[in-house]
Amino acid sequence: MPTNILIVEDEEPLTLLLRYNLESEGYAVESVARGDEAETRLRESVPDLVILDWMLPGLSGIELCRRLRARPETERMPVLMLTARGEEAERVRGLATGADDYVVKPFSVPELVARVRALLRRAKPDHISTLLRAGDIELDRETKRVHRGGRELHLGPTEFRLLEFLMQSPGRVYSREQLLDGVWGQDVYIDERTVDVHVGRLRKALNRPRQPDPIRTVRGSGYSFNEMFARAH
């Protein structure tokens, strides 16, 4: 069964962005735009995690979080709070109300997805999503295997990490420096041209003649996983 995430956020563009990236991770995602609607929804069934905006119409995120912690059914449900408030006192208030983690807008989507994964790993280690799917490509984090159209691909460890990193945020363009930090780590000192070499190796492993290339080169910027490919069936 997929891991279920409820987004409670009244900014529709942000909701769509979060839904797209979380579904790309293999999660089942629902969303509501009002705090009172979320409270009603959460009385019907309890998701595995809630992403909750601080400021909401109908019922504030802080008050909803307080009520959730008062109910036995939801007292241990992971809650990740989103807010434009960055002051330390407000962060402390959010955590004191019962939020498990706190992200200040604007935020990095890969960072938020990583925080979601960490919360789920702590709360329900058996439920963490291990599969990334996009188009006809499937990446299994647990077995370290990648398939395209049912054919197993043989990737080196670096190419696997590179593909995993790009697939987590389809459409987002990463510079070579960002890819070095995200895939190799900030403490590794290697030339940015190394990224080009490994992207070339990844493409060679992914693509057969006449197959669409899921890796997009953005001249002067870097690379991304093609969001149009990710939406293909």
UniProtKB/TrEMBL annotation:
Q: InterPro entries, from UniProt?
A: CheY-like_superfamily, OmpR/PhoB-type_DNA-bd, Sig_transdc_resp-reg_C-effctor, Sig_transdc_resp-reg_PhoB, Sig_transdc_resp-reg_receiver, WalR-like, WH-like_DNA-bd_sf
Q: Which GO terms describe its molecular function?
A: phosphorelay response regulator activity; transcription cis-regulatory region binding
Which segments constitute the OmpR/PhoB-type domain? 129-227
- Write down the SMART domains for this protein, in alphabetical order: REC (SM00448), Trans_reg_C (SM00862)
The answer to keyword Transcription applying to this record is: yes
Q: Which residues form the Response regulatory domain?
A: 4-120
Sorted alphabetically, the keyword list is:
Activator, Cytoplasm, DNA-binding, Phosphate transport, Phosphoprotein, Transcription, Transcription regulation, Transport, Two-component regulatory system
DNA-binding region, as residue ranges, is located at 129-227
Establish whether keyword Transcription is in the entry. yes
Record's Gene Ontology CC terms? cytosol; protein-DNA complex
Q: A Pfam family name for this chain? A: Trans_reg_C
Q: Which GO terms describe its biological process?
A: phosphate ion transport; regulation of DNA-templated transcription
What is the name listed in the Swiss-Prot or TrEMBL entry for this protein?
Answer: Phosphate regulon transcriptional regulatory protein PhoB
